[in-house]
Amino acid sequence: MPLGRSEINELIETSQLLVTPFRSECLRGASLILTLAPRFRRWKAASDLIDIAEQVPSEACLGPIETAEQIDLEPGAFVLASTAEKIGLSHSIAGQLSALSHLARLGVGVVSDASFVGPGYGHATPTNLTLELHNRNPNPVRLRCDMPIAHLRIERVTGEAGDVPASIYNAQDPLVAPMYAEEWRQRLTKSDSSP
Predict the structure, then answer these.
(1) Could you tell me the pTM of the whole model?
(2) Least crowded by CB within 10 Å, which of 56, 57, 62, 102?
(3) Could you give the C-alpha distances from 177 to 62, 118, 182, in angstroms and in order?
(4) Could you tell me where the beta strands, DSSP code E, fall in 31-185?
(5) pLDDT, tens digit, for every residue of 74-128?
(6) Tens digit of pLDDT for each residue in 20-29?
(7) Among 86, 172, 80, which residue's Cα sits nearest to residue 130?
(8) CA–CA separation, 81 vs 62, rounded Å?
(9) Interstrand relation of 78-89 and 141-144 (parallel, antiparallel or unpaired)
(10) CA distance 56 to 52
């Protein structure tokens, strides 16, 4: 169950939830509104298959990091971006990221499916959250940096989380290529060698 405004504010005041920069007007009834940073990285079409078990197969399919005050998303576009805010969660809370309904009504998504922000993410080093921008609208859509773009809902973690490894993306540039193979290499190797 998402926490309400007063509980989120208390987490911020006690440094269990780190938000830099924090703007009180972005605190809503049951979420924190995050804004769009001016850095983007576009996926580009390639004729080769992307094998996610390879070390960095997608690096060749990602364009260079762009800095701009706005970005035009063509229909079907898929672009990596990030929040302007750096976030840090204590190990007792987790987050859920979703698009503002205004954007969803336009067919613009901010997460492809990776909406979960795990306990402890960014707590030692607050980190911008990666946004996976995509346009399902049949028309191009322009987004501007610093515009409100996503809700971050906060939930308490009940029970003992145990000694869980930090996210591989913790303290990374939010526009880094997917690191699936790096995180799951040992498991992938076992799968490849089984009869």
Answers:
(1) 0.88
(2) 102
(3) 7, 19, 11
(4) 32-35, 39-42, 66-67, 70-73, 78-89, 93-99, 108-109, 116-117, 127-135, 141-144, 148-156
(5) 999 999 999 999 999 999 999 999 999 999 999 999 998 889 999 999 999 999 9
(6) 999 999 999 9
(7) 80
(8) 12
(9) unpaired
(10) 8
